[in-house]
Design brief:
single chain, two-stranded antiparallel ribbon
């Protein structure tokens, strides 16, 4: 296993079948069920929050909101993956963008898609854009967490080889690796939800929740990327790393989120346009 590993606990990856249910030619994958579960939890949470008298979104419009989010996630996630991680394939065959069944979704592309969709939705409901993004931010996190569990079930996006003291490592093909999918599920799903949910219940200016989301997700993603293996095809000569033997595409895309999030947070508390406090 590449070292003297004397763990008190060893978990060997069981090679889970990515297909949860198969009925004739119809195959329902665990990854798709994770997306469905994320949308369902987000819908339930948003419905509950929308019942508060100070909510910018009426309960009757939550169904529409989740629909807009779903379109943004799927369209933006796929387009973002092809642009950020599969640009050569996209140039060679533009129709590859529609081959969703082959896999390939990007969080950063999905985020951009959701932000665009929220702009359209905010205009339709005649609410300030950042009031809508603040409202939805905590309820995006269940989907992020479940999506990473879907990555774990698919046996993809593993981390680098773990040290001999990493008793929590997962043995994949005889090699103990960091289960970075589970790291991200914990940080981006549970921890980020608790931070945003608790903060959004406090008195704070519009835009602050959105800024906090960007900062926290960006920090968590950059941290995990230090032990997550990059896509080799991004730079085959350097095992997928873009620079210095450790910079990944995930870090390149997440660092601006931190900067923009800090700017939003500062602006929320200092701009006269957003000095009015609100709760949800």
């Amino acid at each position: 296993m590449g070292g003297d590993y004397t763990w008190s606990l060893v978990f060997i990856y069981p090679e889970i079948d990515p297909i949860a249910i198969s009925i004739g030619p119809l195959a329902i994958r665990w990854y798709g069920l994770m997306y469905l579960g994320g949308f369902a939890l987000g819908w339930l949470g948003a419905r509950s929050r929308a019942k508060r008298p100070d909510s910018p979104i009426a309960p009757a419009r939550v169904d529409d909101l989740v629909f807009y989010v779903a379109i943004g996630v799927i369209a933006g996630g796929r387009l973002g993956y092809m642009l950020f991680y599969g640009f050569d394939s996209l140039i060679a065959n533009p129709l590859a963008i529609f081959r969703i069944w082959e896999g390939g979704m990007s969080f950063h592309g999905g985020l951009i898609g959701v932000l665009v969709a929220m702009g359209v939705f905010a205009r339709n409901v005649k609410q300030p854009y950042f009031a809508v993004t603040d409202f939805i931010a905590p309820w995006v996190t269940p989907g992020l967490g479940l999506g990473r569990i879907g990555n774990f079930i698919n046996g993809e996006l593993w981390g680098s080889e773990a040290g001999p003291d990493a008793f929590w490592a997962v043995v994949v093909n005889g090699v103990p690796r960091h289960p970075t999918q589970l790291y991200e599920a914990f940080l981006e799903g549970l921890v980020l939800f608790l931070i945003l949910w608790g903060f959004s219940r406090r008195t704070r200016p519009i835009m602050a929740v959105s800024g906090l989301f960007l900062v926290c997700y960006g920090v968590f993603r950059v941290m995990v990327e230090f032990v997550r293996l990059p896509d080799v095809h991004m730079n085959p000569d350097a095992a997928g790393y873009l620079a210095f033997g450790w910079v990944t595409m995930g870090q390149v895309l997440s660092t601006p989120m931190i900067v923009i999030g800090i700017a939003f947070f500062w602006w929320a508390y200092h701009s006269p346009r957003y000095v009015e406090r609100t709760t949800q």
